[in-house]
Amino acid sequence: MEITPRPFGEILAEGMAMLGRVWKRILAPAFWTFVILGAATIAAFALTGADDILQLILSDPQALVGMNDTEITEAGLLLVQAGSIVLVFQLLGTGFLNLAVHRIVASELAGEQMGAGAASSKALSRLFTLIVAGILAFVLVVLGLFALIIPGLWLAGAFSMISAVVALEDVGPVDALRRSFALVRGRWWPTVGFLLLVGLFGSLAAQLVQLVALPIVGAGDVGLGAGLGFVVLVVAQGFVVAAIAVMVTLWYLDLRSRKERLVTESLR
């Protein structure tokens, strides 16, 4: 079946319908990815000693007043160090999850129901390519921001389809950047608008989940409540990221259909 260009609203509607079809298969990689990220976050703060600083700030904010400049600087460096490690893991985990979801959605459109395990294997095999492409894109965007700001913002939008390109096309890092650039060209404003709208929906969903999880944390036994709250947050955060990736996959396919003849059989 041929994929043809669709209006903005139809892609959103199709994304919701697709989410209803593949949610079971994206749930497992979403959950385990964010469980690992949670464990990595705890480990990063514990191993660097930043957790002591964080606990001190949360339990006794006035303690900072009694610190001298050297102690404050050291505390800040520990927090930055731990935060940097967490950020790296966050980027890796989010990239992996995006790659897996892109494959699951594409296989669904192609008439094949790729399972979570197969999609995860495909994602792992393409993760290094995405890492390199992401680093190149980051450098170019930062240079653009330092230049005149606007070129950096424009490049950020132009490179927004990198993960979908890496997942669904057999290209290297540099070609992935070129391909994303070519696909978004002429559709920069609709692409950025779509991504901002989807990101807004995702943010609202995450906030809603937090409102649900917080009463669970505070109810009943402290240990049980905290554990249940953590599980709810992990599942929800992973699922929100995966849901956004579903939408991005469909937008990427729409961009491709505007540049070339695209049939679902080619997505296998």
Q: How would you explain this protein's 3D organization?
A:
The chain has 9 helices and 2 strands; from the N terminus they run E-H-H-H-H-H-H-H-H-H-E. The model is unreliable at 217-227 (pLDDT under 50). It has a two-stranded antiparallel sheet. The chain is globular. The protein starts with a strand and ends in a 5-residue tail after the last strand. The chain has a domain at 2-114 and 187-257. It is mainly α.
- Approximate shape: globular
Q: What count of helical segments does DSSP give?
A: 9
One letter per element, helices H and strands E, the order comes to EHHHHHHHHHE
User: What share of the residues does DSSP label as strand, in percent?
Assistant: under 5%
Low-confidence stretches: 217-227
Quote the distance from N terminus to C terminus. Answer: 13 Å
Structural class: mainly alpha
Q: Main beta sheet: strand number and arrangement?
A: 2 strands, antiparallel
Q: What's the mean pLDDT score?
A: 84
| Count of distinct strands | 2
Strand order of the largest sheet: 1-2
What's the gyration radius in Å?
A: 21 Å
Residue share in helices?
over 70%
